[in-house]
Amino acid sequence: MALIKCPECGKDVSDTAKMCPHCGYKIKIRKSILLLLDDTMNFVISEILNIVLIIVGIFMFNKGKEEMLFWVQAKRELGVEDAMYCIKNISKYTLMKNTGIVLICVGIIAAISFAIYKFSSKNEESDKA
Ligand SMILES: [Zn+2]
After folding, report:
1. How far is ligand 1, taken at its centre, from the CA of residue 29, in Å?
2. Ligand 1 mean position, distance from CA 27 (Å)
């Protein structure tokens, strides 16, 4: 457990507190998660996780797209009796492909926001000094 400064009154507040006991200011949980990034090790680990997320996303997107195209082709060739099986696979791999895109976007957005946060909090520190 660590102490953070209340953004409203500036007094020390536990980072696990949802509300400042001095002035009642509601401390956002998101803020305390971002404060973890002040530690360089945490920041590096978070960025590595983001990159892993992006890589997994790219893998899922490629695999999903490949399989989806395969089953689209198969549906055309196999004919009506297997169409339902093909359609099931097509929607399954379309979902995989789209999940991949979401993971890539989330990973990129998180990586950029973490970097911006880290960069801006570093500037604040050097302004104070
Ligand atoms: Zn306060």
Report:
1. 15
2. 9
What CA–CA distance (Å, rounded) separates 10 from 36?
A: 19
5: CA distance to ligand 1 center in Å? 8
From ligand 1's centre to the CA of 26, what distance in Å?
Answer: 8
How much distance in Å is there from the Cα of 39 to the middle of ligand 1?
Answer: 23
Burial class (CB in 10 A: 0-12, 13-18, 19+), 14: middle
What is the domain count for the chain? 2
Question: Using one digit for the tens of pLDDT, what is the confidence trace for 30-60?
Answer: 556 677 777 888 889 999 999 999 999 999 9
pLDDT of 124? 58
pLDDT at 31: 57
Q: Which domain holds residue 68?
A: 33-128
Residue 38 CA to ligand 1 center (angstroms) comes to: 21
Cα gap 45→23, rounded to integer Å = 34
Residues 61 and 2 in one domain: no
Are 95 and 111 in the same domain? yes
* Residues 18 and 43 both lie in one domain: no
